[in-house]
Amino acid sequence: MKTLSLLIFFLTTTTCKENTTVYICNNGKTKKYHLTSDCRGLSNCSYKIIKSTIDKAKNDGKTLCGYEK
Fold this sequence. Notes:
This protein is of the alpha+beta class. The protein has one domain. 29% of the residues lie in helices and 20% in strands. The protein has two helices and four strands; from the N terminus they run αβββαβ. A two-stranded antiparallel sheet has the order 1-3. The chain has a two-stranded parallel ribbon with strand order 2-4. The chain is globular, with a radius of gyration of 14 Å.
């Protein structure tokens, strides 16, 4: 059980660092962020796709795109 707890801790701390780059469709009303710039959820974006940090995106109320969950 200790090994599983350590593995979960490692995975969450290495994949959700505050400086992790995420991608956002800059249309002014988007509610999602994307982990990759070629995510299927960004395919309909007719605005500029911008880079941000995961912390900034979360602080702005954005949540992870459903295609990447």
